[in-house]
């Protein structure tokens, strides 16, 4: 697989991870967009959860799930570094920053530990992997030119 297709595949799994876990936790997905930027792909997703501080941890888990989905895909398929020269952690900084901001807005006594939510996101991605793969495949198919 060439680098642009690997970039699309990794990004599709990342966004699918957000979406599948959000849905599993009672959220909704307004839209998923994958946009080609040069030889790379960028993803954007609109998640919605009820406007209730009690569900902020679920939103945070859904936000963290994207990186776990991309990482899990990477671990399963092991693309060569020369063909997938992306730093997953650097590429997910925005998601982590948003998660930290959401948690920081909660009163300290109601704030779950970030590492616990991150571990929950990782477990949920594995538990829902078939759905993540299915949605990622649909996203990739939607972006590929017809044969």
Automatic annotation (TrEMBL):
GO MF terms listed in the record are:
ATP binding; ATP-dependent peptidase activity; metalloendopeptidase activity
Read off the SUPFAM superfamilies from this record. Answer: FtsH protease domain-like
**What's an example Gene Ontology biological process for this entry?**
proteolysis
Q: What protein name is recorded for this chain?
A: Peptidase M41 domain-containing protein
């Amino acid at each position: 697989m060439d680098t642009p297709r690997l970039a699309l595949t990794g990004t599709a799994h990342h966004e699918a991870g957000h979406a599948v876990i959000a849905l599993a936790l009672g959220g909704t997905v307004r839209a998923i967009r994958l946009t080609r930027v040069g030889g790379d792909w960028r993803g954007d997703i609109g998640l919605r959860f009820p406007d209730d501080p009690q569900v902020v941890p679920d939103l945070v888990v859904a936000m963290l799930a994207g990186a776990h989905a991309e990482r899990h895909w990477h671990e399963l398929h092991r693309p060569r570094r020369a063909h997938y020269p992306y730093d997953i952690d650097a590429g997910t900084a925005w998601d982590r920053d948003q998660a930290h901001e959401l948690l920081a807005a909660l009163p300290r006594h109601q704030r779950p530990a970030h590492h616990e939510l991150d571990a929950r996101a990782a477990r949920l991605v594995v538990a829902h992997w078939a759905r993540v793969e299915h949605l990622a495949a649909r996203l990739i198919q939607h972006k590929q030119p017809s044969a």
